## 1
Amino acid sequence: MQMITADTVPLADNPHGVDVRHLYKTDDVVVTQITLRPGEVVKPHKAPVDAFFYVLEGSPSIEIEGETVAAAAGMLLPSTAGSLHNIRNESDGLVRFLVVKTPNPAA
């Protein structure tokens, strides 16, 4: 059985300059954990594949195609391929969330 913990996965280079860790990758899917410190942002961009965001901790502001939600732990937000989205941590605490993309855009 394979077991993966985020703290053992190396940081990934990314254009947002935030803590990004690719936890699991196949041709079909990539699962990434992102941690945002207060004031950090995943800049607006479009993914070429379907994605969803699952909030693990904190209350990020998630915008998808111009609609913004004050998200909370346990919330899942889907984003279809080509949708413009961004995520902001406007709080004083940490925000952690999973991003699942399918299929893996790098495959």
Note: The CA atoms of residues 18 and 88 lie 11 Å apart.
## 2
Amino acid sequence: MNEKVRGMIVAGVVLAALGGTLGVLHLTGMDKTAGDDSSDASSVKATTSSEDLSVKLIDVDVKDIRQIDVTNEFGGFTYTGESESGKDSCGITELEGMTLDSNKMQDIGEDTANLKAYKPVEEDAEDLSKYGLSEPAAEFHITFADSSERTFEIGDKAHQNRYRYVTEKNTGDVYMVQESTIQHFLGRKEDLIDTGLFPSQDSDENGEFGKLTVKRADLDYDMVFEQDKGDNERSNENMPSAQVMTEPIFSYLNGSTSSDVIFAMYGLTAMEAELIHPTEEDLKTYGLDEPRTVVTYVGNGSDWTLNIGGEYHDENAEGAEQSAASAYFCTIAGIDGKDAVWKLDATALPWVTLMPGDIITSLMTYNNIWEVASLKLTGEDNTEFTVEHSEDDVTAAFADGKELDLDNFKSFYQYVLTCPTSEIWFEDPKSEPYLTIEINRTDGGGDKIEICKDTDRRDIVKLNGRTSYKIKNSWVKRLLENVEAVKTGEPVQENY
């Protein structure tokens, strides 16, 4: 054989052998340069996508985890697992009395019992600092049911961000472990608390709203909301909302704008628990010794209180605080396992800035025309309208005994119902009413509107004897003109 050809064959055999050796080194991942990114890249090229380099670091039943002692930059915590004595739940020693997140607790137990490395990185590493393991980010010490113990340390993020470098203490062997399986060992113990604060709405067995009270430190009145029962127990199906405001005035609620105010407490969830079992000094620190807003709900066996205190402000890119509060610090009373200072998103707390005018309707009264027996106006000129009905509709209307155009009367009654409610008012008028409107229903119920002089452009309204609104007196002027119009058959005017 030609010597030149023989040499080429020998060289090819040597290269093939070397390639096989390198392939084995990359396959195990335990070469001394495995921590280098370029080496890992070579490993990817040298292996196929179907190769599984994972290593089981722990493989036991979750009930074999007796205890995990965690140390990290936040101090750490002690996880206690299910014991052979029949304990059916796990816990955190430092969070006694708090309701824990059951999913996170389950993850800690199962992920630890089945701890797996994505792949080995370096065996018997001499320099752990390049993996962040000379000063670990966290350490977790496991005690098993048979009293055996093992300790692992968590280092830096790997070049593949989903992973962290992990070593079993004092072995020098370094692995890449998926961060999601060890993330709870890196965080605060408070992050293991269940952040759900109030039961969801469907937990209300009776399905009927109770009583919600909002107290604001910057207002000299409370806002109270209750189920609208009506003095004739009428159905709420045509009402703007099934709830009404009963303080500081009685008013119907706008169904769309009031929904968050009425039901925001149901299913309310915190961003995080800031501090557990706060002291009086802690409450002062977070502005909760004198809350800015207190929201209470009582009904169907529930009695909850939400105290809203100091503001939390996010920082912009330059590190300066944003002017608007992004969250508030709060406490909860009346629900077990929630004794903490909580951070809640500002958008979840509509009561902080709530004003009555934000959610009331434009309807001062709500009496369906097919329920109305009479409409009586008393003033300089007195007029009484009477109404006749079929089973579910109006068939005729009369003014002082004279039959009216029915459609025109309906337009007039609609004008009465739209008496404006844009400005609420609590201070009693100094004068007696100059006009009274009485709406009397067939069931004996109804409403009484008394209008008193205030200024040249404003009148004060008492609804059922209670000072409630200021209205434009131009509305009253148009009302009196419409009384004459409907009696003479002229069109009713809606503008004023």
Note: The chain has four domains: 3-46, 55-192, 201-358, 369-488.
## 3
Amino acid sequence: MLDALFVALSAVVPVFLVIGLGIWLRRQEVLPDNAGRVLGLYVLKIALPLLVLHLFAQARPEDLARGSFWLGLLLSQGLMFALVWSADRLAWRKGRREAIVAGMNCCVSNMAFVGLPIICNLFPANAEALLVAGLAILSPNLAIALIQARLDWLHGSANNSLRSFLRRVLLGNPLLLAALTGCILAGTGWGLWIPLDRTVSLLGYTAAPCMLLSLGLDLRTRVAMARQLGSGSIVARQSWLLTCKLFIHPLLCWLLLYLFGVEGLWLTVSVLLSATGAALVNALMAEVYDAGPAEVALSVVLSNGLSMFTVTAFIWIFLYLGMV
């Protein structure tokens, strides 16, 4: 019990330490006021696409061809997005951009920066577990790419034709272009030229600290804005979002993978990664596209803090069932 709690804490605490550094930097006025937004744009347009390219290019063709695994994982994310988006539009009366980002916030998990360290500590030196984690980390990027294209369409030009939308998706979306390029490199077995791959990975792995710093730099402002929304409504709203992200999503992932015949580490690792909090990039999306940034930032912080308890709970369950 204590070991599982320590694993979760050791993965989550560093995240909050970097966020705390961002808060301190803002308080000391070390960086300009727009530093958070600039860092967010850098992550969305440069660092994160390069990280996606690096990860996809290293995958093997047979790993990418596990249909039941991909179907269960992606379908759980799609159904989670549809549930939250529908509730936002019908029950919470949110706008289109706010509903899209809320749906994204409940289906795109913090797999890379919280989930992967947990898997590494839980399954040390287990190549299969790391393989599953590496592939699962790729799945949210597909959702992010499509969601970003839709937000660009809503946020951008007056030309909202199908041709314009497809142009944005295929040519104007760095994440999707990086994923497609990585799939081609993995499928052909070419990979990236080693010096180029090292350059890409060097830039790509700056996404994590930049996301955390960006969140910390603007956190006090966002939380203050969120608290002004009204104490009663914000409590109910956050309770709904956190329930969807931390409980419904991993349980839905578990159910779908089980129904599709996925078992063993492929199921266990996927569920544990889905049980992590909302991805930090969600807060950046909300900031860049002005889609309820205060609310989303608060949800990201709360979900990642509480995820150490939900991930620990799922670890206990898997231990009890003999799956770990």
Note: DSSP finds 15 helices and no strands in the chain.
